[in-house]
From TrEMBL:
This is Protein BPS1. The keyword NAD does not apply. It comes from the Eukaryota. It comes from Arachis hypogaea. Keywords: Membrane, Transmembrane, Transmembrane helix. It is a single-pass membrane protein. It is found in: Membrane. Its main location: membrane. It holds the Pfam family ROH1-like. Belongs to the ROH1 family. GO terms for cellular component: membrane.
């Protein structure tokens, strides 16, 4: 993954006072059809938030849940594109402020995706040390135990080390929180619908990314408590999800666990059980326990590999959706394209067709 070049300089958003205000209701009102489109978007968002709420605390911060969370925000971003097409709001009719917000948010999301992909790769590399240890333990020969201990020590050190890209990601996340203070929209019902939808998808995205950042950085400091107004139909589902997940993560951090990530904690538990055995000699009495714990460690390492692979694919899928939508917006802002469309009298139609085609591409990605 690589970050797309941002044609606009970074802009400072409003001071962090109350960035969670409702979009101004004044001005032109949405038609019944436009309200239906917006309500359908928000109903889907509420349902996704409800599905993300784990049935038990054990599900939180498993890679299965994290993969579902990333898939959820990817699907909501694709829904925003569908809403744009359904509202027949061509990019060339967007207010400059909307374009700046969209581009600024998208470039921050690309940065965050790159940071998450970097951390996933790092965890995969550390898991190689576990696989090396398992290879040394296959023969149950005491002479290989020293090598196995060394490999497991390397795994622990690598896992406990900090990723500079995740540390930078925390700053980007702060900026993304600032982008929740969306520009006011006047005299544009479609623009209000767009900003309200962008607010919903950004809240969901900021929350999920803050959970990932907290888990990957091994720090609860970046867990956010976003205050969403009751006027939004998806607010109750969001608050329920946020409260459930954040409270459990804070409990895990306070308990002094090796990691708040389930799969990493499972490996650490197996390592702790193996160490007393392999640091001595394996006699007949210990052999059964030894084989059992080696099997557990092997399963834990396999689960970690599988979970990281699935999460990596989902992060990449989200990255591609954001990048494609960003590139489509930029391609329709080129002066030569706009001039050409004006000459042929087909500006709105061509932009709408491009957006509609993009929606189809994203829908294919979601179905895959």
């Amino acid at each position: 993954m690589s970050r797309a070049q941002d044609p606009h300089p970074n802009k400072s958003f409003f001071p962090f006072g109350n960035p969670f205000r409702m979009i101004s209701p004044k001005g032109s009102r949405l038609s019944p059809q436009q309200l239906t489109i917006l309500h359908e978007f928000e109903a889907k968002l509420a349902e996704r938030l409800r599905k993300l709420t784990p049935k038990s605390k054990d599900e939180i911060l498993s890679f299965t849940w994290m993969t579902s969370a990333m898939a959820s925000i990817r699907e909501t971003h694709s829904d925003v594109l569908t809403l744009i097409a359904d509202l027949e709001l061509p990019v060339t009719d967007w207010d400059d402020k909307w374009k700046d917000v969209y581009l600024d948010i998208s470039v921050k999301l690309l940065d965050i995706c790159n940071a998450f992909s970097s951390e996933i790769s790092r965890l995969n590399q550390s898991n190689l040390s576990v696989k090396c240890a398992l290879h040394s333990l296959e023969s149950a020969s005491p002479k290989h135990f020293i090598r196995a201990c060394s490999s497991l020590d390397s795994w622990r050190q690598l896992t406990n080390s900090r990723n500079p890209r995740i540390e930078k990601c925390l700053t980007v996340l702060d900026d993304l929180v600032g982008s929740l203070d969306l520009p006011k929209v006047k005299n544009s019902a479609k623009g209000k619908a767009l900003m309200q939808a962008m607010y919903g998808v950004t809240v969901q995205t900021v929350f999920v990314c803050s959970v990932f950042a907290a888990a990957f950085s091994a720090s609860p400091k970046k867990l956010l408590n976003l205050d969403v107004a009751d006027v939004y139909s998806w607010a109750p589902a969001f608050r329920s999800l946020q409260t459930f997940v954040n409270e459990e993560i804070r409990v895990r951090f306070s308990s002094g666990r090796f990691s708040v990530l389930n799969e990493l904690e499972a490996i650490d538990a197996s390592v702790k059980e193996l160490y007393p055995i392999i640091q001595g000699s394996v006699d007949t009495v210990k052999m059964e326990s030894y084989q059992h714990n080696v099997h557990k460690l092997s399963n834990a390492s396999g689960n970690l590999s599988q979970g990281l692979d699935l999460l990596a694919k989902e992060v990449d899928g989200f990255f591609q959706v954001v990048l494609t939508s960003r590139d489509t917006l930029l391609s329709n802002l080129r002066p030569d394209k706009i001039v050409n469309e004006r000459v042929h009298g087909s500006k709105n139609c061509s932009v709408y067709q491009v957006l509609f085609g993009l929606v189809k591409i994203v829908q294919v990605c979601v179905n895959e």
